[in-house]
Amino acid sequence: MTDNDRPHYTLPSLRQAVRGAARAHRLPAELRARLVMSAADLARREIEAGRPVRLAVFPECPESRKCPVSPDGGPGGRPRQLVVTLDALEKLGADRHGGPADLPLPAEFTPDGSAVWRLPLPGGHNARTAVPSSRNGGGPETGEDHGPSELQAMEQELRAALARIDTLTAEHRQLKHELAETNRGTLALYVQLEERDEQLRNAHGQTLRELEDALRPPPIEVPGLELAVHYAPAGTDAPTGGDLYDWLQLPDGTVHITVVDALGHGVTSTRGALNVTHAVRTLALEGHPLESIIARTAEILMPFDSELMSTVLLARIDPGTGDLYLANGSHPPALLLPAEGEPRYLEVRGRGVGYPLAGSERLLHTRVEPGDLLVLYTDGLTESRRDPREGERRLAEAVRRHADRPIAEIPGAVAEDMHTIILHPDDTLALAVRRPRRD
C-alpha cells in the first residue's frame, strides 16, 4: 500500500495520531498539547485543500540515528529524543499562515516542505509501542472518534496548562513580593547611607571651617584702618589651597600684610604657602628690613623644600600717616583707588620664593590718604580669563564700582563681578584696606 493509496488525515485524526504518539512516549502533558496544536496549525491548509499530509514519529538514539527495532516492533535501544516529522507541506515561505515564530512549539523547516520537532524524552523511558504513521506501516485514522480517552487526554493537557499558569502566577507573585521587600530594604539602606553621608559632610565641613579659621585669620582691628578679606577655593572638594595671607600689627604700630600664592592646589600648596607666611611673620617681628624679607625667606626655606615656588607681596602701612611700603616677589601688583582720582597699580619688580635671584628689587613708597582704598589679591582674581591685562582693567572698574560699600562687602562684591565668566578655576583671594575719612 503506497502513501497515495492511504486515506487522508483529517484535522481530528491528525490531532489524535500526534497525541497518541506523544502519550506513547510519555511526553509531558504541556509539551504534548503544544505539539498537537503546532502540527494541526501547520497541516490545516493542506488538509482543507484535500492534499495528503504524512506524519512520521520515531525515537532517535545518541548517535543521531533511528534506534534499532526490537522483535516486538518497539525500539531496541535507549532513545534520547523523539523526532516528529510532518511532510508534504506546501508554501512554507513568508506567505504561509502561521510562521515558525507563531507556533506553540517551534519546529525546524526543511526545503522539501517538512516540519521537524526534536523533543527530549523522559529520562530512562523506552517506549515499546509502535506509533502509527505512513512511514512505519501505519496510517491515519479516518474516523472522527472523540471517545472518552481523547477527551480525557485533552482535559489532562488543559489541566497541565492551567497548573503551569498557576505555578507561573504564584512565582510571579512571590517574585513581586521579594522584589518589594528588596526595594524596601534598599530604600531603607539608601536613607541610612544618605543620613550617614550628611553627618560626614557636616563633620567634614566643620573641620574645614576650623582649618580655614586657623589658616586665614579674620581682619585685625586697628584704629585708623578698615580691613576685609574674601577667599574662595578652586573647588569645593579642596577648600584649602595655596593662596594665603597674614596681617599683624608690629610693635611700632604699623600694620604688616603678607599675601602668598604657592604653586599648585590643595593641601600640598597650602603647606608651602603656610611655610612662607610663617617665615615672613617671624622675620617681620624680628625687625628685618621689609625689602630684604622675601630674599631672606627663600634662603631659609629652599634648603628644606627645593620644589617650593611661591609669589609674595608684602605691604607695610602706618595707620596714623597712611605711609605705605610695598615689596614684591613675582606677585600681581596692588591696586590703589584714591578717594579723588583714578585707580592705579603699584608696580614693583621682584622674584618670588623658589625663583632665581629671589627678592624684591626695590621698596615702593606711597601714601594712602583718608578715603583711599587699597586692594591686594592673587592672580585667581584677574586671570580667570585668557588676558591678564584685560583682567586688571576689569578689576579696576569693579573696585571703582564697589568702593562706596561697607569695607566688609567690597572684596566679595569685586570677586563676584570678576568671576561672571571663568575659563579655568583657581583659588581666589582679595583683601581690602581703607583709611576712613576724617569727620
From TrEMBL:
<dbReference type="Pfam" id="PF07228">
    <property type="entry name" value="SpoIIE"/>
</dbReference>
<keyword id="KW-0378">Hydrolase</keyword>
<keyword id="KW-0175">Coiled coil</keyword>
<protein>
    <submittedName>
        <fullName>Translation initiation factor IF-2</fullName>
    </submittedName>
</protein>
<dbReference type="GO" id="GO:0016791">
    <property type="term" value="F:phosphatase activity"/>
</dbReference>
<feature type="coiled-coil region">
    <location>
        <begin position="151"/>
        <end position="185"/>
    </location>
</feature>
<dbReference type="GO" id="GO:0003743">
    <property type="term" value="F:translation initiation factor activity"/>
</dbReference>
<keyword id="KW-0396">Initiation factor</keyword>
<dbReference type="InterPro" id="IPR001932">
    <property type="entry name" value="PPM-type_phosphatase-like_dom"/>
</dbReference>
<dbReference type="InterPro" id="IPR052016">
    <property type="entry name" value="Bact_Sigma-Reg"/>
</dbReference>
<feature type="region of interest" description="Disordered">
    <location>
        <begin position="123"/>
        <end position="148"/>
    </location>
</feature>
<dbReference type="InterPro" id="IPR036457">
    <property type="entry name" value="PPM-type-like_dom_sf"/>
</dbReference>
<keyword id="KW-0648">Protein biosynthesis</keyword>
<feature type="domain" description="PPM-type phosphatase">
    <location>
        <begin position="222"/>
        <end position="435"/>
    </location>
</feature>
